[in-house]
């Protein structure tokens, strides 16, 4: 198992993860970073997350991955209105 650290990075801000989390490989660390981003955007959809990312580092503080926050609001990803199966004459 490898220990990865998930730092929240903005334009002028860096919030460091001092605890980290153990995963067997980088793909699991990537998935965890994506889940962190999803949780943050879902819990605080009022904030402007443009330019923010999760920087993933290894135990020697070497950057191994950077995952960007989505640039669009989650509200822009709504499903399109469902089209009726009926024609305009109600058939």
Shape: globular
**Structure class:** alpha+beta
Can you count the beta strands? 5
Number of self-contained structural domains: 1
Secondary-structure element series: EEEHEE
Task: Count the DSSP helices.
Answer: 1
User: How far apart, in Å, are the first and last alpha carbons?
Assistant: 61 Å
In percent, how much strand structure appears in the residues? 25-35%
Main beta-sheet annotation: 5 strands, antiparallel
Approximate helicity band: 10-25%
Stretches where pLDDT is under 50 for at least 5 consecutive residues are 74-80
Rg (C-alpha, Å): 19 Å
Structural overview:
The protein is built from one helix and five strands. Strands 1, 2, 3, 4 and 5 form a five-stranded antiparallel sheet that branches. A hairpin with a 5-residue loop joins β4 and β5. The model is unreliable at 74-80 (pLDDT under 50). It is globular and about 35 Å long. The chain has one domain (2-72). The protein is of the alpha+beta class and 91 residues long. Helices cover 20% and strands 26% of the residues.
């Amino acid at each position: 198992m490898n220990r990865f650290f998930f730092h929240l990075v903005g334009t002028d801000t860096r919030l460091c993860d001092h605890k980290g989390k153990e995963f067997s490989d980088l793909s699991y660390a990537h998935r965890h970073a994506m889940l962190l981003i999803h949780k943050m955007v879902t819990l605080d959809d009022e904030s402007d997350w443009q330019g923010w990312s999760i920087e993933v580092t290894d135990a020697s503080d070497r950057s191994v991955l950077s995952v960007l926050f989505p640039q669009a609001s989650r509200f822009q990803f709504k499903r399109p209105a469902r089209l009726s199966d009926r024609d305009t004459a109600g058939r």
